[in-house]
Amino acid sequence: MDPVRNPYAPGAGQRPPELAGRGRELDVFDVVLERIARGRPERSLMLTGLRGVGKTVLLNTLRSQAINHLWGTGKIEARPDQSLRRPVAAALHMAVRELAPRHRAPDRIDAFLGVLKAFAQRAATAGRGGAAPKLRDRWQPGIDVPASSGRADSGDIEIDLVELLTDAAAVATDVGTGIAIFIDEMQDLGAEDVSALCAACHELSQLGAPLIVVGAGLPHLPAVLSAAKSYSERLFRYQRIDRLDRIAADQALCAPAEREQVEYEQKALDLLYEKSGGYPYFVQAYGKATWDHAPRSPITAADVRVAAPEAEAELAVGFFGSRFERATPAEREYMRAMATLALVDGEEGGRDDMDAAVPTAEIARALGRKPASLSPARDALIKKGLIYSGERGTVAFTVPHFGRYLRTQPA
How far apart are CA 367 and CA 369, in angstroms? Predict the structure, then answer.
């Protein structure tokens, strides 16, 4: 098989050649866009799921849908060490610039940009806790109009964000369209920023304003939002993004191959689904390796067996190993105990991926430690995005098959 023609694309946020199994999510978002365009009330959208299920790819695809509906859009990636103020200002600047050529009153655009500049510069005047800002935070937006005063510049992120997004929505109303802000890795926002974002979305929904937030994050994102505002459970539409079913996984492999006049034998598809578990990133990784090793079409199960070790070696280094290396020895000990217990619980529950959620009390018992003494390791792993707590008193891996990987590594 010609490696130059290999259609598969395992990569972080890289769109696969065939976006299989996400038709429902795309259809739902089309309805959201149309309803808002007609003045109907709609909720902002939150996508949740493990790493490797294609949340970022789907987020980018939804943004393309919004652009096709002539919406203004902006996208940011949340980081645990960065305030929301600066990136959201940049995202809104981009969104309004997309709408500006269709606005009949340039003065209205300039007025909003003045508010936006004041909002952005407020972040540059003082760091968190009133300390002087770091050099990297002394950012000036590329806005030519002077900063306004008395709007979105109080220094209270919740007050300022409500005012800023309300003004941005008014600009979209003037144009007869909407604005969508896309936020990836949303679970990494600070508590104050999450609270401010919830408050802003609440205000926008009450006004029926044409501005929505589309967030993507790990499975515990709903809990993060709920901890910030009790009404967040009713404020957002939540969509769990999971692994592909068998039909969708076969489509993700076969459709790109057919465009290159290549076919798969059924037993090859059976084995590929067994190896990948239906997780989109793994489907692409195994598909790419199999293509490169297959001598001819149709691709056989023997080709998959030959290629699988290469795919697994690449995943072990780039997908699993890079995350494992970020953990301290104490954190690795914690995860190894998790992996062992997850296997037992997964077998008892009939789980074929064998990475079930594990009670923290059982981890402490397995390590012969008091639960309180393990809290620093658990909290650090959650902060690093390696595990999450979906329910009180339990933890699970954020990466599919991570427990399986750990169980193959020497202690």
Answer: 5
Pairwise CA distance, residues 395 & 306, whole Å: 35
The answer to whether 243 touches 400, Cβ cutoff 8 Å, is yes
pLDDT digits (tens, 9 = 90+) for 58-89: 999 999 999 999 999 999 999 988 899 989 99
**Any bridge partners for residue 72, and if so which?**
179
**How many alpha carbons lie under 13 Å from residue 205 in its C-beta half-sphere?**
18
Task: Report the C-alpha gap between 308 and 74 in whole angstroms.
Answer: 39
Distances (CA, A) of 285 to 59, 75, 275, 320, 323: 21, 27, 10, 13, 17
Burial annotation 341-351 (CB, 10 A radius, 16+ → b, else e): bbbebbeeeee
- CA 66 to chain centroid, in Å, comes to 18
Residues 124-174: tens digit of each pLDDT: 544 444 444 554 445 566 677 888 888 999 999 999 999 999 999 999 999
**What type of residue is 135?**
L
Rounded distance between C-alpha atoms, residue 347 and residue 408, angstroms: 17
Q: Within 10 Å of residue 235's Cβ, how many Cβ atoms?
A: 21
Q: Positive or negative, the Cα torsion across 60, 66, 68, 72?
A: negative
**The pTM is what?**
0.89
Burial 287-316 (b: 16+ CB within 10 A, else e): bbbbbbbbeeeebbbebbeebbebbbebbe
Q: What is the pLDDT of residue 148?
A: 84
Tokens 């999510």, residue located: 25
- The Cα 73–Cα 400 span in angstroms is 31
Pick from 10, 40, 45, 53: nearest CA to 26 = 45
As to burial, measured by CB atoms within 10 angstroms (0-12 exposed, 13-18 middle, 19+ buried), residue 372 is exposed
Give the closest residue to 163 by CA, choosing from 96, 98, 108, 112: 112
Residue 242, helix vs strand vs coil: coil
- Please state, in angstroms and rounded to a whole number, the distance separating the CA atoms of residues 338 and 9: 31
Answer for the pair 47, 58: CB distance below 8 angstroms, yes or no: yes
State how beta strands 358-359 and 394-397 pair.
Answer: antiparallel
Beta bridge partners of 129: none
